[in-house]
Every structure is written in structure tokens, then in C-alpha cells.
Amino acid sequence: MRTFLALLLTLLAVPVVAQDMLPPAPYAYQQLDDPALETQAQNLMLTLRCLKCQSQSIADSDAPMAGDMRHQVRTRIAAGENPEAIRAWMVERYGAYVSYKPEVSASTWPLFVIPLVLIALVLFVLSQRLRRRA
Amino acid sequence: MKRLRLVLWGVVAVVACLFGLFAFQLSRPKDDVVVSAMIGKPMPQFDLKPSVADRPGLSTRDLMDGKPKLVNVFASWCVPCAAEAEQLAALEQNGAVIVGIAIRDRPQDVAAFLQAYGNPFTRIGADDISEVQLSIGSSGVPETFVVDGKGIIRYQHIGDIRAENIPQLLQELRKAES
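ok -> C-alpha cells follow
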């Protein structure tokens, strides 16, 4: 009986949420009127990292901060700013981590070079063997 | 035949290295802290309206009056922000000027929060859509920035301030003085 009561009480428990009470920013969930601009914004939002939920893009995330970032992206696009300029603005503040777009840089170049080297190596070995067989 | 065996050992070595790398990376604690890239750069232009009735709002100009300040990014709905209140009070007692940026917060909630945990702030700006937070590269609450008298961001503390962080913050403030 006591267990049952305890279980019943858990139904009344109110979860303590660290969540704000303010409505989302105007353009967090509101699309831009111009479909072309909205597409630009959408493409950019898909390649910006949500800083609260770091494996999601800001287009995927329902975190309030992601909503505020979408608002930034949409209002800046609507004001005529170039998507890459907005990406640069974010990177200037949060570092390259905020962008999902693959970029060749001082720390990432091996990722691009190693596959090419491996393919070259495979082609070389293959050509050697084929020649020997012929 | 001998060459083949050598090549095979090579493959084994490469795979062993790979597993070694996996083991190393998996044994390291997860580090998901995003450090602001704005340290050393001037505070961006902003002008925030007051968050509560008894404190003025916060603008970039207020951070350029020649005196270094702590800029505390907080919210009443954030639990660690309540936990660091004691430390902010201690910093204030040690002469630190602390201004606040309230993220996505209703005035009545901020007022109740300050009532409950104390008010170490000389100014509190209301950042309702995290605009200023985004522009200074802050990725959560609470965070505390040291800004020098010219409005240059000098230091960032991520997460709640613990008692052991106080000397560091006071030292950063002194460093910002020069």
C-alpha cells in the first residue's frame, strides 16, 4: 500500500526544469516570407552547430538558444547579409567548432590529403602487380 | 613470401595504433566546453534595457568608463546561477564591480531571484533573445567575463564560480587594470 501511495505521489511530482519563461525570438520558428531567402537561411542553419546540444544543428534543435541563433540567421539574411558572412560572424565568436561545413585549414588538411595518398598508394601497388602478371 | 609477411605485420601495427587511439580518446573525459573566441577583442556594440526597476540597463559605453568589470551572464531560471550567488557577493566585497546580463528572463523572475540570492550587480541588462550573449561568444549560463576599462574582453570563466575561482578572477581584474 505504501509503495502504491509513493508511486501515486510520483505522478504529482513537478519536474524542476531549467527553462526560461519568455516566448521564442520572433524568427526562431517563423519562416521568412521570401522562399528564396528562407532557403538560404535554412541551408545555413543546417550547417551551424547548436551550442546547447552539440550534435545537432540549429535547424534541428528546440533549445531556446538555437531558436535565438535561428533568429539571428533569418534577420541577417532578410537584411541582405551573405550567408557566408553570417557563418564568419559565428566563427569569429565561437571558433570553427560552431560550423559544420568541412573546411581545409591548418588542423584539418590531413583529413583531405590522407585519402588521396592512400588512393595513390593503392593505384601504385595495383599497377605493379598487374604489370608483373602480364 | 617474406615481403608479404612484413606487409601483414605492417597492417597489424596500423590497426594496433588505431585501437590505441580509440582507447586513448575513449578514456578521456568528455570536453564539450565552447570557449569564446572574443577574448582580447572589444566588446561588441549593444544597448540593453534595464532588467529590473532598481538597476539601470547595460550598454557597451558603460563598459568603457576606465574601470575593469566582471560581466556576469546569468538567468533566474538557471540553477548554477543561484549556486554562484555567494561567490559573486564575495567578489563584490573584494571590490569587484559586477554588471549582469539576464538571459531570456522576465523582470518579475529576475527581481525574485535577486531577492532570494542577493544583488551584487550595479547594472543589469535584459537580453531577451540572447543577442548580446551570442555576440560575445558565450554558449550558456552562467558565464563571467572580465572586461577592462576600455571595453576589451580579457578573460572568460565558464560555468558557476566556485570559491576556489575567486582568487583567479580577482587577479584577472587586477591584470585588466594595467
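The beta strands of chain B are 47-48, 58-59, 69-74, 98-103, 121-127, 143-147, 153-158.
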